[in-house]
Amino acid sequence: MTTLHLSYMIAFTISMVGFAMHRTHLISTLLCLEGIMLSTFIPLAMWPLQLQTPSLALTPLLMLAFSACEAGTGLSLLVTSSRTHGSDLLQSLNLLQC
Question: N or C, fewer C-beta in 10 Å, the chain?
């Protein structure tokens, strides 16, 4: 295993630990989720270069598009929750209420 692969796995692990541990604010949860997406995007973008195949080159762009949609949805939820509840604390949100 090269140091490049090890750094990708460490970045993914740190993002997953941050996502599991820092669940007090919505913005920190969204940042950890973006870290997870970026740590999986970089190896996925490097994979066609290592295999020298052009057929897999569309996959990272598709993942990046889904990541941008996820970030936009998360930020809109952040703005909506801060307007209605006054803060971005996840404990103040009750998902059972409509």
Answer: C
Structure tokens at 91: 């404990």
Examine residue 97 and state whether it is found in any structural domain, yes or no.
no
pLDDT of residue 71: 86
User: What is the rounded average pLDDT for all residues in the chain?
Assistant: 82
Q: Which residue has the tokens 């971005």?
A: 88
pLDDT digits (tens, 9 = 90+) for 31-74: 888 888 888 888 888 887 777 877 767 777 888 888 888 888 88
Residue 58 lies in a domain: yes
Looking at the domain assignment, is residue 71 inside a domain? yes
Residue 81: is it exposed, middle or buried by C-beta count within 10 angstroms (0-12/13-18/19+)?
middle
CATH number of domain containing 28: 1.10.287.3510
> Has residue 65 been placed in a domain?
yes
Residue (of 18, 32, 14) closest to 71 by Cα position: 32
